[in-house]
Design goal:
Low-confidence stretches: none
Helix content: 10-25%
Distance between the termini: 17 Å
Number of helices: 2
Strand content: 25-35%
Length: 70
């Protein structure tokens, strides 16, 4: 679950079909669980440099309570 400073919160849900292309490495549970918030740029990031677009994440969660990545 993610929490934004203005009180908006929700879940990010990865469907298995999303683990392709640049996200293929996140299929590995050890890689996936090394996620962190890069406070300098305001993104959810992995050690391998992948990150999620915070503006899209915020809008989806604000509107739907979750961000479904398919």
């Amino acid at each position: 679950e993610v929490f934004f400073e203005d009180g908006v919160s929700g879940q990010i849900i990865f469907k298995p079909s999303r683990f392709r292309g640049v996200f293929k490495s996140l299929e590995n549970e050890e890689v996936f669980k090394n996620v962190f918030v890069d406070r300098e740029v305001g993104t959810i990031t992995w050690e391998n440099g992948l990150d999620l677009a915070p503006d899209v994440m915020y809008e989806e969660i604000k509107q739907k309570g979750q961000w479904l990545l398919e």
